[in-house]
Design goal:
Blueprint (H helix, E strand, L loop, with lengths): L1 H27 L12 H27 L6 H28 L5 H30 L8 H44 L1
Length: 189
């Protein structure tokens, strides 16, 4: 089951890269109407914040999963899960702001928002399931569905962090390209 998810995630990442390249090609040919391709600075800032929060979540998930290989008590697990929950909720608040600003975003920014929301929801659902499992089984959790929730959370957190980071890098690269194009236009006049 995990192998299938990895293949699906790899395919989704490939589709995302292809879509970004297609958007770039369309913009380069001028197929978009004026204003639609303009990057929204507020959305860019929110995506950067989301990237940073997702990176923290990714580290948290690694740390959480590593607890299953130690003698950590269920209380330690509970404390760490609470921290992850707070970080998921903080990222959720950023995602809500992004969702509100979606209509004024550039197409690539809209795609970033659309792609991150379901992955964030999956991460929140897995975190909730792990918390519920721990609340129902107050023993040192080292096996069963709990470890699966943590493994899924780790994979999903890495995917989310990588995805958002890739979109932010794409935006930065586009901005650099546009600055270079403007410089070249000025130099050629």
């Amino acid at each position: 089951m995990t192998t299938i998810k990895k293949v699906v995630r790899s395919l989704m990442a490939g589709i995302a890269v292809g879509s970004m390249l297609l958007l770039a090609a369309q913009q380069a040919r001028g197929q978009q109407t004026s204003g639609q391709g303009d990057e929204n600075p507020q959305v860019t800032q929110l995506l950067t914040e989301a990237r940073d929060r997702a990176a923290v979540l990714s580290r948290d998930a690694d740390e959480m999963e590593s607890l299953t290989r130690t003698d950590a008590s269920w209380e330690t697990h509970a404390t760490m899960l609470e921290q992850i929950k707070e970080h998921v909720n903080a990222l959720g608040r950023v995602a809500e702001k992004l969702k509100s600003a979606r209509d004024s975003a550039a197409p690539w920014q809209q795609q970033a928002i659309d792609r991150m929301l379901p992955t964030l929801k999956e991460l929140a659902d897995n975190t909730t399931a792990a918390i519920q499992h721990l609340n129902e089984n107050k023993t040192r959790p080292t096996s069963g569905s709990y470890t699966e929730y943590l493994k899924e959370n780790t994979e999903t957190a890495h995917e989310l962090s990588s995805m958002i980071s890739s979109f932010v890098k794409y935006g930065e690269t586009r901005a650099r390209l546009e600055r270079l194009e403007q410089r070249l236009e000025v130099a050629s006049k």
